[in-house]
């Protein structure tokens, strides 16, 4: 049996080093030389295992964002559709979204996307996919909810959750998080109420 490939291991090593570098030095300051040094490799190794600068940035984005999307899906799996909405709120405003070093990397990449059309499209693809997944979760739990309505609410939930995470380092009262989570739950409850089947008045109509 041949020796197993080290590609996955080396890529992970490089991407962890890239994340540390971007969190500390920003995207512009994270040259391939600096990332290679942090990974204990040469620049040629970085190019061999990950690729050029654009490919490295794309891989770094996937490295930091994919675990959040995957854990959200895991939190919703194996639940009845109606039970997925409270689970979704719990996830978006729970400890899984607590601020950590990943946020520094994500924010640096989003900031870099302001001047990089290619990166902007890459990041948009990820968030629009998240929006669609949340919209699908909403429509499965709320029969009669249309695509446009569910996507609008999905976008609002994403903005609320990620905005709250961004402001977490500021000394707002602890009640702000609970209040934001309660507001998200109220928005979903209002949607469910708006699409609840009205009581049948067939009998009343027949008696008139």
Plain-language structure description:
75% of the residues lie in helices and 0% in strands. By secondary structure, it is an all-alpha fold. It folds into two domains: 1-51, Arc Repressor Mutant, subunit A, CATH 1.10.10; 58-194, Tetracycline Repressor, domain 2 (Orthogonal Bundle), CATH 1.10.357. Mean pLDDT is 91; it is low at 202-208.
CATH topology of the largest domain: Tetracycline Repressor, domain 2
pLDDT < 50 runs, ≥5 residues = 202-208
- Separation, N- and C-terminal Cα atoms: 84 Å
Summed up, the domain count is 2
Would you tell me the overall average pLDDT? 91
Global Rg: 22 Å
Taken in chain order, the helices and strands follow as HHHHHHHHHH
The helix fraction, in percent, is over 70%
How many β-strand runs? 0
**CATH C-level category of the largest domain:** Mainly Alpha
Backbone structural class: mainly alpha
Number of helices: 10
Beta-strand residue percentage: under 5%
Shape: elongated
The biggest beta sheet reads:
none
The CATH architecture of the largest domain: Orthogonal Bundle
Keywords: DNA-binding, Transcription, Transcription regulation
Pfam families: TetR_N
Protein name: HTH tetR-type domain-containing protein
Organism: Actinomadura napierensis
């Amino acid at each position: 049996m041949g020796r197993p490939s080290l590609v996955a291991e080396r890529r992970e090593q490089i991407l962890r080093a890239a994340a540390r570098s971007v969190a500390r030095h920003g995207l512009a300051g994270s040259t391939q030389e600096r990332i290679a040094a942090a990974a204990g490799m040469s620049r040629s190794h970085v190019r061999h295992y990950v690729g050029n600068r654009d490919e490295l940035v794309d891989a770094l984005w996937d490295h930091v964002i994919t675990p959040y999307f995957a854990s959200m899906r895991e939190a919703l799996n194996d639940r009845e559709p109606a039970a997925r909405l409270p689970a979704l709120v719990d996830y978006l405003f729970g400890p899984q979204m607590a601020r950590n070093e990943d946020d520094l990397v994500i924010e640096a990449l989003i900031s870099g996307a302001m001047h990089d059309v290619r990166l902007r499209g890459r990041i948009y693809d990820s968030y629009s996919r998240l929006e669609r997944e949340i919209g699908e979760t909403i429509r499965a739990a709320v029969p009669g909810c249309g695509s446009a309505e569910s996507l609008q609410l999905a976008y609002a939930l994403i903005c609320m959750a990620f905005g709250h995470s961004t402001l977490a380092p500021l000394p707002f009262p602890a009640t702000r998080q609970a209040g934001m989570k309660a507001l998200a739950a109220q928005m979903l409850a209002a949607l469910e109420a708006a699409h609840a089947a009205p009581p049948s008045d067939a009998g009343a109509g027949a008696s008139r």
